[in-house]
Amino acid sequence: MMNEIDIKLKEREKQGNPITVGIVGAGQMGTDIIAQIGEMKGIDIGVVVDTTMDKATIGYSHSRKKFEVLATNDLDKAGTVRLADKKIATTNYNLATSLPQIDAVIDATGSIEMGAIISIDAIKHKKHIIMMNVECDITIGPILRQLAENAGVVYTLAAGDEPAAIIELCRFANTLGFTIVAAGKGKNNPLNIYATPDMLKEKSKARNMSAAMLCEFTDGSKTAIEMASVSNAIGLIPDIRGMHGMKSNINELTKIFCPKKDGGILNHEGVVDFAIGVHPGVFVIIKTENKRIKEALVQRDMGHGPYYLLYRPYHLCSIEVPISVAQAVIYGESSGHPKKKLISECIAITKRDIKAGELLDGIGGYCYRASIEQADIARRENLLPIGLAKGCVMKTNVKKDTVITYDMVDFVNESILLYLRKIQDKLCT
User: Fold this and answer.
1) Each residue of 312-340: pLDDT tens digit?
2) Which residues does 152 contact at the CB level (< 8 Å), separation at least 6?
3) All domains of the chain, ordered by start, with CATH?
């Protein structure tokens, strides 16, 4: 597939018809994508959107391709630009989602609400959507995927992000007829479920990232969100609420993430989980009942079983994202997408006591962290999806370590995100 993509992109380069991308969000990840596409043939950035013109314009400076940048928010003016010669920097996302010159839109905002807005407008204008915003995917992914399919475009997770890297291994295993016992990711950041941005100011500064983003990694929210995305794409479930999150090394993975009857920790087969100590890799534990295949796996140095490890020792995040763009535009394929209904839900658990009347902050903040639960259980217990928690007002006092339910909060504003989630809950269950 990679060779075919390379050939197709080089053909488009020769024809003067490169894939043209609009990217919303020129932060760390978005700028990496701009830089990487600047090294490639047959694919170009046409529009960069950010909160200020300076940020959008500076994003282009990391590309080695030579071009002129036009800073404008005028849709009509931008529509007259030949994007092969001149690129657009803007604060108006509509230029990325609606210009006819754009083939695909990458959401690199990190904002769940903006993810909803960008996706709907891209679908309206029949643009493929590359969703780096996993928080949005686990909240309204099924309805966005359905709307995209109805419009004849692709909704896809982003290659290089851990969910897509795990999904790639799962697709490989499923295609060959192996049974997937567990799929997971390595976690390197120390796990502190009560972490706050204040605790991580110095570390985040040293890593050139926001304290809230580092907090989302540290308190376990990002891991829960990413594994929920895998669950919703492949159909695997969390073995327990929150997953096990065992310490491990590569050699121990098949011994730990296997059923209890064989000395492992799992109550069920077919689960998502994570391991502390194998970062930056992702893994899938598989098995087979075929004696001949077992013998062949021994010959291929896969061990004597009964459980075998598929391991990808890297995931390059934003650097790999152009692959998903090419797959969507050239082949109409995704690097991963949710099924028609949620399999897992990310729920909100309080980090501290919260009083009635308090406004809930965002993921990676001070109020709550994400955990993972089976969607059927979350629905039955009326648990609040973490993607909807920001901006809610608590109706009652709650203690630290409380799972927040819909009954405990008021929604202050009706948003497109909440509207889409309500439709999804009615149509995609």
Assistant:
1) 999 999 999 999 999 999 999 999 999 99
2) 126
3) 2-161+319-331 (3.40.50.720), 162-314 (no CATH), 344-427 (3.90.1210.10)
